Amino acid sequence: MGRIDRIRSLALTGVLLGPAVLAGCAHAGHHAAVVVNAPLATTTSTSAPATTTTAPAGAIPPLTLIAATHGAIPGSLSPGGPPTGTVPATWYGYPTVLPVIAQAPGWVEVRLAQRPNGAVAWVPAGDVTLSSTPFHIVIELGSMDLKVYQGGRQILAFPAGVGTPGDPTVTGNYFVTMRAPAPSPGYGPFVLVTSAHSDTITDWEGGGDAIIAIHGPIDSYDDGLIGATGARISHGCVRLHDSDLAQLGMIPAGTPVDIIP
User: Fold this and answer.
1) Count: domains in the chain
2) Residues 24, 45: Cα–Cα separation, whole Å
């Protein structure tokens, strides 16, 4: 059975649903796919892209507000402004949970999962349920590592496989949109799907998008390349040793992910 036929078979049996949309899940030179639930046809509203953080020491907040939407809700370019689009109720079949980056009376500004990278919208506070996450992920491309913060303090640091110069991992301020099942053992115990999208790949293997994810090393060769110092080996996704990825199982949807140079 070929790989595409196997993916279709998994979809039919309900083990994994939907098209392949994640970029960089194979090592450079291969093609592979992570499967997540199929998206709904929706529109989104955006305002100016957010600036890229440099995550200096002490800049990681102890808590981040996160907003779970009450179904599909209107989004605006400013607090109290007219709706310019719709923030969807789900993203690839998973509930929409978004980090809050600003507040105004009766309104919250949230990051969005959809393209373009850095998309944000103001939504009515009454249309969301607010909670918080103490976790924050910082991926540094220069040092090729991933750090996890809890309550503003670093608790974990792992070497990471990141994008090659031809298909680099995008920088910016993003978040975890979902924890999805892995399609095979090479992807580790699960896949953390982020709101980042590749700038060099627009349609990964016909999936309609190219989303950046955090997952396992794919195979033992790439696992060896990641080693203890990280490596530039992917089409944009971030790869961790399986044992390191397993320690991220507590990360909830809405957790900020800052990818810095």
Assistant:
1) 2
2) 27
